[in-house]
Amino acid sequence: MDPTPSKSTVRVVERPFSLRQRFALAFVAFVGHLAIRALGASLRFAWSEEEGSTPERIARPAIYSFWHQCIFPAAALFRGQGIAVMTSLSFDGEFIARIIEKLGFRAVRGSSSRGAVGALLGMRREVEAGEAVAFTIDGPRGPRYVAKLGPVLLAQATGAPMAAFHIALERAWVLKSWDATRIPKPFSKALLRVSRAVRVPGDADDGAIKAHHADLQSALERVRDFAEAHVSEVGGSDFPIMRGKI
User: Fold this and answer.
1) For residues 52 and 181, what is the distance between their CA atoms, to the nearest angstrom?
2) Which long-range contacts (CB under 8 A, 24 or more apart) does 203-209 make?
3) For residues 211 and 39, what is the distance between their CA atoms, to the nearest angstrom?
4) Taking the model in full, what pTM does it have?
5) Where are the domains of the chain?
6) Taking the C-alpha atoms of 235, 238, 239 and 245 in order, what is their torsion angle to the nearest 10 degrees?
7) pLDDT per residue over 134-160, tens digit each?
């Protein structure tokens, strides 16, 4: 059974904002995207892949997953790549959506708790158009480090490969939020670790879906643990600093 909805089952509802909210959104989006660009330009980062990974930097079409706490360094490193990202329908989610759109991402509104049907359809359209999409997989409110099912269902529906990544920071400000969001300090080392890509068969039954979901959880944990353990080695022979865009 196709896990994603048809166009006829989805109704898009525009969320109204007050004048004060619109001003706040415009101001924070402007300041936020400038701050992320500045921090991103100062990062010294390296790219590392699990054995068996594709040598392509941004595979397309593909479905990527990462922990919510990495959203700032991910926005900095992948800016300008046209990647579609699911963002929450909440007011806070609208802040994130407007910032990342200024950074060259495409925001697909919705989350696992609100607007899930429309958001999954939007992500499917992106994949079927040959694009890359990304899920902040334990967002928008946690629990932290618990992967949701969306990428597995999308991989089953589209046939596109899915992979996980993590960005470890040598030096960062850690917010007192549910996800312990990390904001990179200027000139910090950053290590991006990408998992092997896997495909979910279109005829996968419930047991296979559950197994792939567990594999995604495992991949997210592997790349997190590896990146955090080796970020201090960025700049060495094993993890040379990348120059230019990904």
Assistant:
1) 30
2) 204/156, 209/149, 209/152, 209/153, 209/156
3) 38
4) 0.87
5) 20-233
6) 110
7) 999 997 888 999 999 999 999 999 999
